[in-house]
Amino acid sequence: MNIALLGYGRMGKSIEAIALDRNHNISLKATSSTKSFDFSKTDVAIDFSIPSTAVSNIKSAIDAGVPVISGTTGWLEHYNDVIEYCKSNNGTFLYASNFSLGVNIFFEINKQLSRLMAKVEGYNTEIEEIHHTQKLDAPSGTAITLAEGIIENTEYKSWTLDNPKSNEIRIEAKRIPEVPGTHEITYNSEIDSISIKHTAHSRQGFALGAVIAAEWIKDKKGIFSMKDVLNIG
Ligand SMILES: NC(=O)C1=CN([C@@H]2O[C@H](COP(=O)(O)OP(=O)(O)OC[C@H]3O[C@@H](n4cnc5c(N)ncnc54)[C@H](OP(=O)(O)O)[C@@H]3O)[C@@H](O)[C@H]2O)C=CC1
Ligand SMILES: O=C(O)C1=N[C@H](C(=O)O)C[C@H](O)C1
Q1: Ligand nearest to the CA of 207
Q2: In terms of DSSP H, where are the helices of 186-225?
Q3: Its family (predicted)?
Q4: Rg (CA), the chain
Q5: How far apart are CA 71 and CA 181, in angstroms?
Q6: Closest ligand 2 atom to the C-alpha of 137?
Q7: Candidate from 13, 18, 32, 208 with most ligand 1 atoms within 8 A of CB, to mutate
Q8: What separation in Å is there between the alpha carbon of 121 and the centre of ligand 2?
Q9: How far is residue 216 from each of residues 8, 12, 21, 91, 108, measured CA to CA in Å?
Q10: Which residue ranges in the chain fall short of pLDDT 50?
């Protein structure tokens, strides 16, 4: 399969290594200096770029009739617009805030724990995420997905990075050099605390998940998520 990399930074390069290892070719390596994208030899596009350019990258692939997956975070206020664009152009699109298998299992554990915690009183929920200091967005896309999983099952209505109201989940975003991505959810009461935590040891899990998603989506039409790819949840 021929893969276009829309973004050739830390993730683009990790994806390239895994894609080549799985006998794929890289048809395009786009960076901030790439003027236009030539998709003529591309089967699937993978966008891991920056928040301000993700939407136009995704739409370019849809315009070219190329299935596109995106792992770029920090652009989700435009998610519905992209979905409408994809549907009206009969395109193929998959977004995941986190492509790693471990985190996608963690998303399901988070939802199950939140269902249990909704049945008891006296606990406050907090999410902590830690990433490297080059990260442009806060909170992480993964932390937002975790918060949404809790909101779905509890009385919480939204999340905040600031002082939380009683119906808000506080997300603390820490930036520490070289950390690939750590997420922890804690339920605190006066009596005890319950925590679940996922720690990425490298970017390999994100990159492998993205290549697996690209292989899966190649000949499909529509809007998908990692739940479709991994058949979990
Ligand atoms: N969903 C997931 O599993 C994961 C998501 N991410 C997310 O992926 C994104 C990328 O992360 P990371 O690789 O670490 O970031 P980097 O900063 O290392 O890479 C970003 C890349 O995007 C390129 N870029 C900038 N503008 C454009 C443009 N207009 N068109 C095409 N490419 C462009 C940059 O070009 P240049 O080199 O010229 O600056 C660079 O190559 C982030 O949003 C991050 O949060 C990260 C890990 C996992
Ligand atoms: O920027 C990163 O590095 C990461 N971003 C994603 C996010 O915002 O959740 C996924 C992963 O945690 C690494």
Answers
A1: 1
A2: 204-217
A3: Belongs to the DapB family.
A4: 18
A5: 14
A6: 8
A7: 32
A8: 32
A9: 22, 19, 17, 15, 21
A10: none
**Confidence check on the interface: ipTM exceeds 0.90, yes or no:** yes
Which DSSP state fits 203? S
Of the listed ligands, the closest to the CA of 14 is 1
Nearest-angstrom CA–CA distance, 81 and 62 = 13
- Quote the distance between the C-alpha of residue 232 and its chain's center: 16
Alpha carbon distance 142, 163 (integer Å): 20
Q: Token pair 């991994």 is at which residue? A: 230
Domains 2-99+204-230 and 101-199 share a fold: no
Residues acting as catalytic residues: 131, 135
* Ligand 1 neighbour 107 (Cβ under 6 A): no
Domain residue spans of the chain: 2-99+204-230, 101-199
Phi, psi (degrees; rounded to nearest 5) at 102:
-60, -45
pLDDT value for 233: 74
pLDDT at 188: 97
- State whether CATH 3.40.190.10 applies to domain 101-199: no
Looking from the CA of residue 181, the nearest atom of ligand 2 is 12
Ligand 2: residue whose CA is nearest its atom 13: 181
Q: Let me know if domain 2-99+204-230 sits in CATH 3.50.50.60.
A: no
- Are 102 and 162 in contact by the 8 Å Cβ rule? The answer is no
**pTM greater than the 0.80 cutoff:** yes
Residue 231's CB is within 10 A of a number of other CB atoms, namely 8
Backbone angles phi, psi at 159, to 5 degrees: -120, 160
Element (H, E) at 58: helix 51-63
